[in-house]
Amino acid sequence: MTYPGYEREQQLIELLGSIHRGWRYEARDVPGLPRWWAHRYQPVTPAQHAAGARDVVARTSVYRLAEALGLQDEITDTIRN
Known about the structure:
The protein is α+β, with helices and mostly antiparallel strands. Helix content is 44%, strand content 17%.
């Protein structure tokens, strides 16, 4: 499947994979759901979860996903236990 901006999105997902290595990425084409999903390889701890960390993050664009992953990594880096 290709559409305007497809190649750019794929490049950005590859870049995200090199920056945020603890995540697996997938695109979903389901009406009513976000397009881009990231799933952690390692689940968060209860303390990280209480601070706002999630095992799955979904956003409507690669750019929003990148922003959300930055926040998620910040939470888990701050709370290590």
